[in-house]
Amino acid sequence: MKKIIYLFLTLVLPLSLSAQSNESNIIRISAHKILYFSDYAKPIVEKAINEWQVKDEFEKTSDWQKRVNETTRNAKIKELTKQCEAEYLKKYTATLKPNVSLAGFYDADNEVFLLSEPLFGNMIVSVPIGEARAFKQNWASAQLTPQYFIENDVLALSSLDIYFPSLNKHYTYSNQASLKYEQAQVDYNFDPIDIAAGGSSVQKGQQTIEQKKLTIGKSQVDLQIPETNASNPNTFVIIIANEDYKSVASVPFALNDGRTLAKYCQRTLGIPAANIKVHENATYNDIRLAMAWLKNVCEKYEGEASVIFYYTGHGIPDESDKSAYLLPVDGDGRYVATGYKVDDLYQKLGEMPTKSVTVLLDACFSGATRDGKMVAQAKGVALKVKKGTPLGNTVVLSAAQGDETAGFNEEEGHGMFTYFVLKKLQETQGDVNLQDLSEYVIREVGRKSAVTNKPQTPCVTPSATIGNAWQNWKLKP
Fold first, then answer.
1. Measured between alpha carbons, how far is residue 469 from residues 443, 462, 466 in Å?
2. Which end of the chain is more exposed for a tag (fewer CB within 10 A), N or C?
3. What are phi and psi of 35, to 5 degrees?
């Protein structure tokens, strides 16, 4: 194992953590080396929880069961993870200074400057036109004060205060996504809660808590994510992972699908964390806002942006015209008016000025769930929906066709379609064109679903305007 020397000289990693660190879980910020948050927090929280949940020699079984149960353990996990987040941010931002530069000419029509930072990507800062010339002329003297948060398992820039002493003026970049803060997600693997003591009474007191969500992440595609030094600053990603629905059945492993794909986008494809927007359990308005953000970004990049749009969750059909809808978590499977129409999605993506748009849909639109039941129980028959028509520079890789079900692979903890997408990215380290990726996914999903006797046939649908050009497109340039 290679020895790792950290440049944060005043800070020392815990022994339990440093013993497990290796080059595969290190990201680089200039000369600094920084652990992914999950790699930092996982050993610390697991050790603390496994010690906390042990029954003390002098603790009554009834008292132990009150202290250690599913509810209290989840609360303890959140508490410890929150502490790790604060320590992680303090440790790895103590000496970190963003290397921000002006990325181009002033946009006088929109009164904004585009700034660039090697790790955190591009930033748009509003500067009134009457102040723009002075802003640019005095850029070398600007004093930058960053604020950070954790996004997609790494440091992300939530805001940047730009102060010019000679002008006595402040300007601010703000990542609005940071205002909707969510607890960082880590795939923990705890020992079961188990009283181990002699005597026949022990069996009555034995309690084991197992939660599927706590054991997700065992698949090799989750554990061995290839790293890259490549930079992919002009690719923007929307990931919608809908698992926990309010009115219909949940979608097994959808959250794990979205979280792992986000890690591949950042670690394997080289896309800056700021360019990757993950929406877990997205409502109808969440989807609309995600599309509005993407439209604004693509317009600012004037045809130089590439887009990856990924959706995993329920899809539903319109019984009247057989058109397809994405189902937000606040939607109702009986009413398509509560869904987001796929044709509208394709139209909006097609109208954006882009180099390419790759849509990955791990959903079926027959009205069936991943386990073969119906999204809306009143609908007893799976419907064969129409294929949507992608527009502009868009190609769509879908998990299933017609009245098929988009199934899951329980052993791997992923939707079947998503698992094989991730597997190909892992095997090729992201260096794969869309033709090879799609052929692999279609073949492997077809084989796996045939064994389980639940036919599933992924398909590729390019827009009419791009012909066969999509076949040579790559997610990693």
1. 21, 9, 6
2. N
3. -70, 145
The alpha carbon torsion through 311, 312, 314, 319 (nearest 10 deg) reads 40
C-alpha closest to that of 135 among 169, 160, 159? 169
* Listed residue (235, 180, 199, 155) closest to 474, CA to CA: 235
Question: Where does 209-283 have alpha helices with state H?
Answer: 212-215, 220-223, 254-263
Report which secondary-structure segment, H or E, holds 172.
strand 169-174
CA separation, residue 48 to residues 21, 22, 55, 145 (Å): 18, 22, 14, 35
**Phi, then psi, of 436 in degrees rounded to 5:** -65, -40
pLDDT digits (tens, 9 = 90+) for 75-84: 898 899 889 9
Backbone φ and ψ for 73, nearest 5 degrees, come out as: -70, -40
CA torsion 274→267→473→458, rounded to 10°? -100
Helix, strand, coil percentages for the chain (3-state, nearest 5): 35, 20, 45
**Cα–Cα distance for residue pair 295/100, rounded to 1 Å:** 24
Q: What is the pLDDT of residues 270-293, one digit of tens each?
A: 999 889 999 999 999 999 999 999
- For the chain, give every domain's residue range: 15-90, 101-179, 216-472
Q: What is the dihedral of CA 439, 440, 443, 448, to 10 degrees?
A: -150
* pTM above threshold 0.70: no
- CATH number of 216-472, picked from 3.90.1150.10, 3.40.50.12280, 3.40.50.1970, 3.40.50.1460: 3.40.50.1460
Nearest to 358 by CA among 180, 232, 252: 232
Query: Nearest-CA neighbor of 370 among 249, 194, 459, 195?
Result: 249
Phi-psi region at 457: left, alpha or beta (left = phi > 0; alpha = psi -120 to 50): beta
CB atoms within 10 A of CB 217: 20
Residue 210, helix vs strand vs coil: coil
Tokens at 142, concatenated? 């600007």
Who has greater pLDDT, 314 or 6?
314
Beta bridge partners of 143: 163
Distance in angstroms (rounded) separating the CA atoms of residues 266 and 447: 30
Cβ-Cβ contacts under 8 Å for 411 (sequence gap 6 or more): 219
Beta bridge partners of 461: 396
Q: Rounded distance, CA 46 to CA 56, Å? A: 18
Q: What is the DSSP string of 79-109?
A: HHHHHHHHHHHHHHHSS-----EE-S--BTT
Separation of alpha carbons 17 and 25, rounded Å: 12
